[in-house]
Specification:
heterotrimer; A mainly alpha (312); B alpha+beta (553); C mainly alpha (299); B: 553 residues; alpha+beta; six-stranded mixed beta sheet; 17 helices; 31% helix; 19% strand; globular; C: mainly alpha; MetI-like fold; 11 helices
């Protein structure tokens, strides 16, 4: 198992390196630069700006300069927010987005796994349709629809919950977490239902049932472990996706998170910011994909024995 | 085990928040507005997160509001009339036929660290604002000053040659290239503000853009408020400055600025009394607010024009008759009435009406019959043989609505095929500057109240011309004749002549004049409608007895 | 356990020869599932409506009546009109054409690439698997927005490009899910038996692995379609893909949300159309999954 993890971590190095390199050149190839504005920038001013950000150097020199800064953990100054470094902006937004993503995923797991497991026990009955139908609401209602709806009902008409902000008014974390989590709840519900059905039809479950084990033990001890493999495989990319994809929710609820910076950096052609967020997110994606692969392997006894070199 | 504990803790937090919130809802927690009215704090919706607070580095409307609360210029604008009034300078004198201005600084003017604001601070700051290495996007604001442009372009190395001198601590002499009627107005623009030299030098070179001198605890400013807190994408807090020379007139104890880039969310924040003031109002909410008694909605004409750029080198719009036909078949009044919900004024020229007493000429009107005739003369009778035309705009709901409505007007009046395409912001800017378009949406907001700021857009090869329009007579009127005019009447007559030419050749299709739109809580006094949407927080007062519902508290 | 091992090769042969009867059995089972049948019929109706829209739509989709503006449902306009005075029913019908086409085509692209990629990686394993999955990681991490802007600049605006761009993004998760399925199937006795019988890897993947992984694939496909439709709305909103006055359900909802208090019908009707479609799709997907579940049916 340890060897597997180490080899995957080693593989991550070229992955991240390719991502950085590709992003660096892709970003420069995109039309429009960081200093383009509605009112034209005088040529003398533009030259001065380019000199301040070293954009006047040949592209390959900029690239190597960036790599050497990166090796020292420096992501450079932001183009859009002069006076702030990319490091600083990332670390101001990260805790917020991570917290939001964590609550959202928790909500998704609680709703999704419960609905999916219940549904799988009696497929094609009311016990299947009702929880699944409820879990589906999240995916049939995109967050740009669900968010404003929740705000309108719970924030404006009922006046139960704050409608914007993060951590400044008690309770302002509830609506954004639900909004972001709802979309993922449906995924989790569907994947766990399908995974459970798959497992419940397996021979070893039938054997367990035939042995007369109580149903909760069959489900809880034997089926859940295998039935949730697809969910676990999904969780890794989902969490990384949550970080990048929280943009819509962060905008609706005016949350000072990373998602907004990630998307706006691309719109602003804030070169250092795009690279910084990408480096950061790609490391996270690699890490979470690895964690979910390890977890899936651990849940799957056959794979586990293979990974730990046939022991057990 | 650890995860289980963490989970338990998390669940407890979740539940306790839910409980706390429901308790709060029952108890009726105090809104920002109520609390602010009690403590003298204004809660201000400021549009977007500002790029920064350095007056010589940043540009933009949200930045403008923040910087003008923190700093004060030599002269400020009267919030009602927009006429210049004393700021850091108590008074100023013109000499040498208006080419030399002497500013007499208020000896009581103080930096927020208690030091006096001196004339040499201005010389240092203008050096920074103009220095070729600073990269100040608004350096051109100071170009009326003698040799300023040459210095900014690096043609002159010695700043002593630039027409600004500190005669004493409180006397600043500015020498201009030519009499510039609007120069005093520019003293209220942040690019001409003074910064505190010692503070900047503590963090780096004069021309550095990146230093943290604008951070809480480091920043030294000279305005009515001082910076007390800046949480990225959350809020910026300011408190009344104890050193400001006119502090007795400042009523607010502080201001909290919120980045509110989502206009729909901003309106909701206003509705639940999280904000006293909104940067904008969503279009579709306006009729509802208008009907309310004692409405919080405030709309006033704004110094800006919304228009379509026409690329005069691309067929079919290289033909002036086609351009005229297109312009004449836009029913602006109907557009304003329906799509724009009466939040704009139909425009038939580039300069907004009543720009310091100047009214633009109207050389054409909505006339679909004449438009069809012109199109036939241009070789496309009833749209036959029309090669197609594309409108581009940058992705935004308001621009989409205008484009969709105009597309249909042109189709139904002229029977021509029109496509529209939205582009991401930077792609759009690139298309416009490379002139890779036929028709493109554009807006221009005046930097100062003068027709010159609109008309000099269209001089040959002007950076913001983008149409390919070039006319030597027009250039001569704007660049040579108008600046030398002896009187306001003569100057305006020359502008009228130039603008008439422009609208006959139609390199742009004017659509409407902007308005500024805000929701303002009834407890707020001292925000007046004006052409520049200019607000001086120094004059703002809060009256807690006024409530949103109109009932007395 | 001994009985199981003995029965697998027989089962395997049945698999190989019973292709036709497998589908027939599945169809029989599907017909009994009321929710799935209901979902299927609803979906068919929507597709039919989309195909026949040019003949069925009561108005031209671009005809405006600015003086009328946004008006609630009436006899002349069953679902009301939008701010331009355009008929909402017509907008929803034309929007459905775009949304359904994007939903099905882009998902098919994603399905094709993702399933193949994941199946090969999972089946072959080892170094090939590592390289293939690291490519997936790289594509996950590239900044999507910049990628889209570049595509737009290089290829110009094009609806086909939209399908491609969406498909190119959506296949990644599909590949990961497929791979993990194949990996666990690869260990199953009947696959090992097939290998020992000397079947070629391609045949094994086609005949045994993919049919057995169909359940999760169908489920994930039904999940991909909604996210594809919403991605289309987002991209169109940014300027890639369809351009006004053309529209899609996602775009209509996007516009409708902003005015949901003033003109709720602009949100409700496109929202209903999208939600109904997605619900139908999911119930059909579930039904299909259950119907095709070979082993489950033995109970």
């Amino acid at each position: 198992m340890l060897r597997f993890i180490i080899s995957r971590l080693l593989q991550a190095i070229p992955v991240i390196f390719i991502v950085i390199t590709a992003t660096f050149f892709l970003v420069r190839a995109a039309p429009g630069g960081p200093f383009d504005a509605e009112k034209v920038v005088l040529p003398e001013v533009k030259r001065a700006l380019e000199a301040q950000y070293k954009l006047d150097l040949p592209l390959h020199e900029q690239y190597f300069a960036y790599l050497s800064d990166l090796a020292q953990g420096e992501l450079g100054p932001s183009f859009k927010y002069p006076g702030r470094s990319v490091n600083e902006i990332l670390f101001s937004g990260l805790p917020v987005t991570a917290e939001l993503g964590f609550y959202a995923l928790l909500i998704a797991l609680i709703i999704g796994v419960t609905a999916g497991v219940f549904a799988s026990l009696k497929p094609n009955t009311r016990q299947d349709y009702i929880p699944m139908g409820l879990a589906m609401i999240g995916i049939c209602m995109p967050s740009f629809l669900l968010g404003p709806l929740l705000v309108l009902v719970f924030g404006i008409y009922l006046e139960w919950l704050p409608i914007s902000g993060w951590g400044s008014i008690p309770g302002d974390k509830i609506l954004p977490s639900i909004t972001l989590g709802a979309a993922y709840a449906a995924y989790v519900a569907r994947l766990s239902r399908a995974g459970m059905l798959e497992i419940l039809s397996q021979d070893y479950i039938r054997t367990a049932r035939a042995k007369g084990l109580p149903e909760w033990q069959v489900v809880g001890k034997h089926a859940l472990r295998g039935g949730l493999i697809p969910v676990v495989a999904f969780l890794g990319p989902a969490f990384a996706g949550l970080l990048a994809g929280s943009f819509v929710v962060e905008t609706i609820f005016q949350i000072p998170g990373l998602g907004r910076f990630y998307v706006q950096a691309a719109f602003n052609r804030d070169y250092t910011m795009i690279l910084g967020t990408t480096v950061f997110l790609s490391s996270l994606i690699v890490l979470f994909n690895l964690i979910s692969d390890v977890a899936a392997a651990w849940l799957n006894p056959r794979l586990r024995s293979q990974l730990s070199g046939g022991g057990q | 085990m650890k995860t289980r504990q963490a989970l338990g803790g998390l669940l407890r937090t979740l539940f306790s928040t839910v409980i706390a919130t429901s308790l709060m809802a029952c108890g009726g927690g105090e809104s920002n507005v109520l609390e602010g009215n009690r403590t003298g704090i204004l809660h201000y919706g400021n549009g977007a997160e500002p790029q920064g607070l350095d007056p010589h580095v940043v540009t933009g409307v949200p930045e403008n509001h923040l910087i003008r609360a923190l700093f004060e210029g030599l002269a400020v604008k009267n919030p009602i009339t927009l006429e210049p009034e004393p700021g850091v300078a108590q008074r100023w004198e013109f000499s040498d036929q208006g080419k030399v201005i002497t500013f007499y600084l208020n000896p009581e003017a103080r930096w927020s660290n208690g030091e006096q604001v001196t004339a040499s601070d201005y010389v240092w700051s203008w050096n920074r604002a103009l220095h070729p290495q600073t990269g100040n996007l608004y350096a051109y604001m100071l170009y009326p000053v003698k040799n300023a442009e040459a210095y900014a372009k690096g043609e002159i190395k010695d700043f002593a040659a630039v027409g600004v001198k500190a005669l004493t601590d409180t006397t600043l002499e500015v020498t201009l290239n030519a009499p510039t009627p609007y120069f005093i107005q520019l003293m209220d623009h942040y690019s001409t503000f003074a910064v505190h030299p010692e503070t900047l030098l503590k963090f780096g070179k004069m021309t550095d853009r990146f230093t943290p001198w604008t951070r809480v605890g480091s920043m030294v400013s000279n305005g009515a408020f001082v910076l007390t807190d800046w949480a990225l994408n959350r809020h910026i807090k300011m408190a009344k400055s104890p050193h400001y020379w006119d502090r007795d007139k400042v009523s607010l104890n502080g201001v909290v600025f919120y980045p509110t880039e989502n206009v729909v969310s901003e309106e909701r924040m206003f509705r639940v009394e999280q904000l006293h003031y909104t940067a904008v109002v969503p279009l579709d909410k306006i009729p509802v607010y208008r009907e309310r008694p004692n409405t919080p909605y405030l709309q006033s004409p704004y110094l800006g024009t919304y228009y379509y750029l026409v690329n005069t080198d691309r067929p079919p719009v290289d033909n002036v008759k086609v351009r005229q036909a297109l312009s004449m078949s836009v029913d602006r009044e109907k557009l304003v009435r329906s799509v724009l919900q009466e939040t704009a004024v139909a425009a038939y020229s580039i300069t907004p009406p009543d720009t310091l007493g100047y009214y633009p000429p109207q050389v054409f009107s909505y006339d679909p019959d004449k438009a069809r005739a012109l199109l036939a003369e241009a070789g496309y009778p009833n749209g036959e043989g029309w090669p197609g035309l594309e409108i581009i705009y940058n992705t935004q709901e308001a621009h989409r609505k205008i484009a969709v409505a105009i597309q249909q007007m042109w189709k139904s009046e002229l029977n021509v095929d029109i496509t529209i395409a939205n582009q991401e912001w930077k792609v759009y800017l690139n298309s416009v500057s490379q002139r890779d378009f036929q028709v493109a949406r554009r807006g221009w907001i005046g930097d100062y109240v003068d027709a010159n700021n609109f008309l000099d857009l269209f001089i040959t090869d002007g950076g913001n011309n983008n149409t390919g329009y070039s006319n030597a007579i027009y250039d001569d009127l704007i660049l040579q004749k108008a600046p030398r005019a002896q009187s306001r009447e003569e100057r305006y007559a020359l502008f009228t002549e130039a603008e008439t030419m422009l609208m006959e050749e139609m390199p742009i299709i004017p659509i409407y004049t902007y308005t500024s739109k805000h929701l303002i809580h009834p407890s707020v006094e001292g925000i007046y409608p004006n052409l520049m949407d200019s607000l001086n927080l120094k004059y703002v007062k809060l009256h807690p007895e006024q409530t949103l519902s109109g009932e007395v508290n | 356990m001994t009985t199981l091992q003995a029965s697998e090769p027989v089962d395997l042969l049945e698999h190989a020869e019973q292709g036709a009867s497998l589908w027939r059995d599945a169809w029989q089972r599907l017909r009994k599932n009321k929710m799935a049948v209901g979902g299927g019929i609803t979906l068919l109706l929507f597709i039919l409506m989309a195909l026949l829209t040019p003949w069925l739509a009561p108005y031209s989709y671009e005809a405006q009546n600015l003086d009328l503006g946004a008006s609630p449902p009436s006899a002349a306009h069953w679902l009301g009109t939008d701010v331009f005075g355009r008929d909402v029913l017509t907008q929803v019908m034309y929007g459905g054409r775009v949304s359904l086409a994007v939903g099905f085509i882009a998902t098919a692209v994603a399905l094709l690439i993702g399933v193949t990629w994941g199946a090969v990686a999972g089946y072959v394993g080892g170094r090939v698997d590592a390289v293939m999955m690291r490519i997936v990681d790289i594509l996950y991490a590239l900044p999507f927005m910049i990628f889209i802007v570049l595509l737009m600049v290089v290829f110009g605006r094009n609806v086909l490009l939209l399908f491609l761009a969406i498909g190119a993004v959506e296949w990644l998760t599909m590949a990961r899910i497929m791979r993990s399925q194949v990996q666990s199937l690869r260990q199953q006795e009947f696959v090992e038996a097939a290998i020992s019988l000397g079947l070629s890897p391609a045949a094994i993947i086609r005949r045994h692995v993919i049919p057995n992984a169909l359940g999760p694939i169908i489920v994930y496909t039904t999940l991909t379609i909604p996210s594809v439709m919403l991605l289309e709305a987002f991209l169109s909103f940014l300027g890639l893909g369809i351009q006004p006055p053309e529209s899609s359900w996602g775009l209509l909802i996007n516009y409708g949300v902003e005015t949901m208090e003033e003109y709720p019908w602009l949100l409700i009707f496109p929202g209903l159309a999208l939600t109904t479609t997605l619900f139908s799709l999911n119930f059909l997907g579930d039904g299909l999954r259950d119907a095709l579940d070979v082993r489950g049916s033995k109970d």
